[in-house]
Amino acid sequence: EKALDVTPPGEFAPGNVLTTEKGIRSVLFSSYAGIQNPTPTRYLINNAEVTTDVGYNTGGAENLTLVQLINFTWDASLGTLQADVWAPTYRTIRDANIVLENIGNVNAPDASKKGYAAEARFLRAYGYYLLYIWFGPVPLRTSSTAEATLARATDEQMKSFIETELAAAITDLPDPGKEEAFARANKGAAWSVLAKFYLNTRQWQKAADACQQVTNFGYYQLFPTYQNLFTVENEGNKEMIMVHPCRNQDGFGNWYSAGALPPGFKTSAQVPSFVWTASMANFATQYRMRSAFTNTFDTINDQRSILLLRHYVNTSNAWVNLLSTPDNVRSLKYWDNATVGNHSGNDVPIIRYADILLSRAEALNEVNGPTQEALDLINQVRKRAGIGNLTMADATGKEVLRDLILRERAWEFYSEGLRREDLLRHDKFISLAKARGITAAADKHKLFPIPQTEIDANPACKQNPDY
Amino acid sequence: NAQNRIVRGKVTSADKGTTLANVTVLLKGGNTRTTTDANGNFSIQVQDNKAVLLFYLVDYATREVPVADNSTLEVALELKNENLGEVVVVGYGTVKKSDVTGAVVSLKSKDLTPGANINVEQTLMGRASGVQVYQKSGEPGSAMSVKIRGASSITAGNDPLYVIDGMPVNNLSPVTGSGAGFVATPNPRNPLNSLNPADIESVEILKDASATAIYGSRGSNGVVMITTKKGKSGRLSVNYSTYYGVQKASNSLEMLTGQQYKDVLNAIIDDGGGVASERVTNDPVNVDWQKELYRSANVQSHDLSLSGGKDNTRFYASLGYFNQEGVLQNSSVKRYTARLNLENSVAQKYAFGVSFNTSYIRDNFNSVGIGVNENASALYAAINYDPSYPIFNTDGSYNRSPFMTTIDHPLILANGQYANSDGFRTFGTVYGEYFFVPGFSLKIKGSGDVNITQRNTWLDPSTILGAPTGGIASINTGNVNYYMGEATLNYKKEFGQDHVINAVAGATSEHFGSNSFGGNGRGYALPDLTYNAIGTGNSTLNQIGSGRASTKIISFLGRVNYSYKDRYLLTASFRADGSSRFGVNNRFGYFPSVALGWKMHEESFLKGVSFIDELKFRVSYGVIGNQSIANYLYITTFSGGGDAVFGGNRYTSLAPSRVANPDLKWEAAKQADIGIDFALFDSRLTGSLEYYERRTSDLLLDLPQPLSTGFAVKTQNIGRMKNTGIDLHIAADVLRSKQGFNWNIGTVLSTVKNRVLSLGPLKQIITGGAGFITNASIIKPGESLGSYYGYEVLGVWQTHDDFSNAPTGVKPGDLKFRDLDNNKQINADDRVILGKSLPDFTYGITNTFGFRRVSLSVFLEGSKGGSVLNNAAIDSYFPISFRRNKLAKPYLNRWTPENPTNEYPSFVNPTSQGQQTVNSRTVEDASYLRLQSVRLSYDFNLHNKVIKGLQAYVTGQNLFTITKYSGIDPAVNSIGDDILKIDYSSYPMTRSFLFGLNVQF
Q1: Chain B nearest-CA residue for A92
Q2: Residue that terminates a domain, selected from B32, B48, B80
Q3: Domain-embedded: residue B602
Q4: If pLDDT is split at 50, 70 and 90, which confidence band does B24 have?
């Protein structure tokens, strides 16, 4: 029997990993890797936009998936829900649980241990927040040794967990800018996630307060030019509170541009600094923007519309007008001249300071109706975009301002994957789909179905209604 | 003194009359022995007239001669008849063919399929009942699918155990990575290519538990015992065999020509499909891209062997050279082999020897993986590429169609994306056997196998994938090694007239190791030197990695064969295996078996029946195992996770490797077998018929975990499966004419019915795919493994159909799917089982005609009842992009209001209902009947002092196939799966014509 004992020569023994600072840190980084999710971010963006009044798609293999989302015919077997959202997020949660369970035994200074624990707590809570927004309450795993079969938490348990865990993490996280490197967790990110959680669960006063906490750091600010906000050169600017960090390398690339580029794109007078080279991929699939959205832009003044490609010169040097085909404008938000194949290096924002400003404005409006304070917040964002201020004359009532904010958010955050949650919060997700002629759209679509593989393997986990 | 007298004598060869030296002469029941001298003379002391002398010599039938009153004896020994008294190799020993109690197929080298075969598996196709062999691809040297009595496992391996001259073969590939950016072929080269088929004397296939249980934990998929040629006593025999041949792709897909492409695509745009900007406006040329990639390819083989022996020593030595080009550019295999088998022995006293094989294999690979778009293989590109633009620009450079942005030019891929590997494999066995007394010996054996491979890969900057990075070079190296020590005690004794016992007991210790290292570089300023100067790229982009693993198995085994009155046979065996792949809770597994045989023809009541030469019944039962799973599944460890990115820099991470399962144990198969062997009418009609049932339980299943645990699977012993089937083998000498005309028919038929019985807590597992295809199959209790799962196509929506219950958005000309739940949506709930990849039965028919010196052999093989998923059809029914080329037949006959067919849709809006890629149109019947080989040979009548024999032949391989399958070939499988079959831009099968010579000196 002894002769048959082997130790895997190419793998690490748990004893070494879970008791040393370097080891536990490596597990923490694996937890980060789960939600950083760079390459699949295009699905996070598209899934949350082709289901709305903003995004559209045709052609290519990705259309296999996206057409189901466009037509509201998706079901629990839709691969992206599992592969891009459910599985990686739960890996983050798994690794965060391991860190939290073992941090007490790690041979390291208490301050470091507290910091690591706070990061793990933050990652886990953010993971559950993300899952909650997509799927509703989910199995709440807080231990790596829990039974594989686990029922979904109640809505109350879920919300309470996210709220208390984020609050607990904030205490020991570093101040914004004091984290070891950009994209490590800090107090600003934790308050921001909490703010978005309150907002999306319509806890307006708490949302407004949490946004104020973010502002109070005095650290975050709007980047001066919208057009350059997303470039690789400006990564880590003080508007980016939380991002999916990307690099122009295999496994770390942002693939959005490869899908958004129209056929044969070479250059465009709209974004002359971006020049396509033979090194860059141009996918068969076409990420397109809906005319009903792009037509609302003030293309003369609104700087944000520059990144919405309306015409271009193709590789045969012909000028192509994208407006001649409906729903055919392209988003070049993530252009990168150093793109290698599919892989652009642009980080994809998760929470920007502009979102915090607009979120606070929205929350304040819900609490008090239109106020100058709310308008000032919105106008900070509009000013950077180059368009005029909203005044109390525009905001004639709570509902009017609510709609103005929703419209502002579309202009500000297109191609950032926020539209679905915005429409859900405004209760327009289904009604707008129906207005687009999608008769299949129904209330059940407000939540995505739990991936079928989970339902199959975890009998205690019940599917969302009507799926 | 009559009680102690000397008997003298001479031993001669019965056929030639020459004297025989070194014949062992043994007093039966005693220890007295001697050997004949150079003139065949012997003398031996015997005690009385009842004494019986035994005469042993290798290659000759053993004789028993009673001394009686004789003082001198003339004994003639007969060369062993090939059929009578034939010996069959079984695990850890041999048995007389007539005494076999298990289900064993024994094939001699002449029974193997002739032709350009690089490995033994190719020679088995359709030759052995109960063995399902098919060639998954026409790529030279690629792995075959070999199943003995079907698949017994879902996620543990289904390959049989190969044993070469008593050495279990570790068939792991030393290099698993394909190289950065290079999509690996899912059908890697076969590790058995290292063994030259020309060196094979016989192949025994052990099928039932009685035969395989002696291999215990590796027996459940059957065992293929390969015995290499041994030297024969006598003069030096030199043999030279060669063949040369030409191969061509046997089929290609019929795609739209340039003109058809223009007409059809523009017509679809006119009908409201596509986008106006994608209209074909150029004056089309007609490029057949598949033809551009194919070539006429040569194959040649040279084998030189020397064998002979003197006194107690015999040897066989051989050199081999094999060189096969692939019909796809830049693919080939070249092999050099050398073998030495050496033995020194005195019968019933001692024997020792070595068996040694070494090889060097050079493989060249084109990209034939299952990648898509920019990762696609040249073949995928050839099927999908725009056929309307010329191949070259006017300046001679490759001309990329402006509409093919994601797929590369097929010829750029074929020439700019390639890999090659150098493989060095040496294996061999040294053994010694010592007889304490006649019939009782100790045998010690040591074996080793080292397989070292380096694989080089290059993606040229001229390709879409290589361009962004300035070329990608990779080198992956690895070695797989295996060492074994084995000791067995062998005992054979007759008790009186009626009882014979033959027993073996032993112990073995085996070690399996593997090491790998790989690195890749990018960004080459000058790409001239490719991987040969891997370090000259941009050093910041270099990547390296390594791996190391080992496994041990310790075993104890025993077997008893008992025969009563040479009529009733009993075999019982037992093996205990301990493996490091399992935790201490279940480290050892125990595998017993028992078999009974009844030689009915020996019974008195059949003695008078003249037309029955042999009639034997046998039954067997046993437990066998499967341990083909990954290492270390019972240990909790951490290994490298994905990198995190902070501040634009990458940071490595560690993540848990798996959900450990300390209770993991063997997959156990219980197999029962009943069979009958017969030889009738002067053995002109021979054969065997067997029925078996194998129930696998405690399946080593990669059980899907709730992904919420953070893990995808946990390997568990869960679930049950059953295989039942019939193996039939019949050989008939239809004609044996005095004029020299002979006609022999050999037929094998194998049926397998597979049923999954239980998946433990799971209702079903939906899995399997390639490229963009996912979830192509379902594993479900009550169904066969490899069941395709998808949508049933009822026809095409016609203009006057009732659309009130139609799915939203459906228009006339769209495919009509069965809406199972009538919810006006075609979604996952509407899927049904569409067929299964595993055939109901496979068969082979060999007709051999002989007329004097001319021999004609015609071999047909076929398969019935299996299906295959056709990806070329999927790409046409659900095009990834409008401008990709399409299959001609569906598009030229597409639905239009004027052509209201139910066969093909209009293709105007092919994805309007989503992408039901796996459906009853794309899952096709893969039954076929193939004329696999025809061989015509002539034996020259030579009376030459130098040349003793000369045979010339021509062989045609894969001459025609009858099938309903619309894809490239019904047998292909491009996804490397053992069970599920998908035809995904498959490397075409080849048709070849060979001319060969065999010369004996």
Answers
A1: B710
A2: B80
A3: yes
A4: confident
Report pLDDT digits (tens) over B58-99. Answer: 778 888 888 888 888 889 888 765 444 578 899 999 888 888
Which of B542, B654, B881 would you mutate first to test chain A, the one with the most A CBs within 10 A? B654
As for how many domains chain B has, the answer is 2
Report the C-alpha gap between A324 and A312 in whole angstroms: 12
Question: Could you tell me if B35 and B133 lie in one domain?
Answer: no
Counting residues of chain B whose pLDDT is more than 70, the rounded percentage is: 99
Q: Which of B47, B80, B113 is the last residue of a domain?
A: B80
Whether B229 contacts B316, CB under 8 Å: yes
Q: Residue A1: which of B584, B651, B714 has the nearest Cβ?
A: B584
Tell me the per-residue pLDDT of B923-948, one tens digit each, with 9 for 90 and over: 999 999 999 999 999 999 887 888 88
Q: Which chain A residues contact residue B631 at CB under 8 A? A: 6, 8
Alpha helix locations (H) across B580-665? Answer: 604-607
B586 and B541 in a single domain? The answer is yes
Determine the length of chain A.
467
Give the mean model confidence (pLDDT) for residues A73-92: 94
**Is B266 among the domain residues?**
no
- Chain B, 273 to 302: residues with Cβ < 8 Å from chain A are 275-278
Crossing angle between the packed helical segments A155-172 and A187-200, to the nearest 10 degrees? 160
Average pLDDT score over chain A: 95
Cβ <8 Å between A264 and B881: no
Q: Positive or negative, the Cα torsion across A250, A253, A257, A260?
A: positive
Whether B409 and B455 share a structural domain? yes
Residue A64, token pair as written in the block: 């296999």
Chain A residues in contact with B825 by the CB 8 A cut-off are: 73, 440
- What's at B5, amino acid-wise? R
Domains of chain A: 14-183+448-457 (1.25.40.390), 187-242+353-415 (1.25.40.390), 256-335 (no CATH)
Tell whether B31 and B120 lie within a shared domain.
no
The token pair that represents A320 in the structure block: 């192509």
A36 and B644 in contact by Cβ < 8 A? yes
Q: What is the DSSP letter of A322?
A: G
Q: What gap in Å lies between CA A103 and CA A105, rounded to an integer?
A: 5
Looking at beta carbons, which residues of chain A come within 8 Å of B546? 10
* Residue B665 counted as domain residue: yes
pLDDT tens readout for residues A268-327: 999 999 999 988 988 889 999 999 999 999 999 999 999 999 999 988 888 999 998 899
Residue B554 lies in a domain: yes
Positive or negative, the CA dihedral A212, A216, A222, A223 is: negative
At residue B3, the pLDDT reads 59
Residue A86: list chain B partners with CB under 8 A: 707-708
pLDDT value at position B808?
77
Residues B35 and B151 in one domain: no
Beta-carbon separation of B707 and A181 below 8 A: no
Residues with Cβ within 8 Å of B14's Cβ and at least 6 positions away in sequence, in order, are B76, B77, B78, B79
Match 């793998």 to its residue by tokens: A11
The CATH number of the domain where B18 resides is what? Answer: 2.60.40.1120
Segments forming the whole domain that contains residue B569: 104-252+288-777+837-876+920-1000
List residues bridging with B615 in a β-sheet: B678
ipTM comes to 0.95
Pair B67, B163 in one domain: no
Q: Are residues B843 and B704 in the same domain?
A: yes
CATH number, domain of B440, equals 2.40.170.20
Residue indicated by tokens 């609050």: A167
Residues B608 and B573 in one domain: yes
Using CB atoms within 10 Å of the CB of residue A303, give its burial: 0 to 12 exposed, 13 to 18 middle, 19+ buried.
Answer: middle
Task: Give the model's pLDDT for residue B84.
Answer: 46
Chain A residues close to B774, C-beta within 8 Å: 79
Residue B508: pLDDT over 80: yes
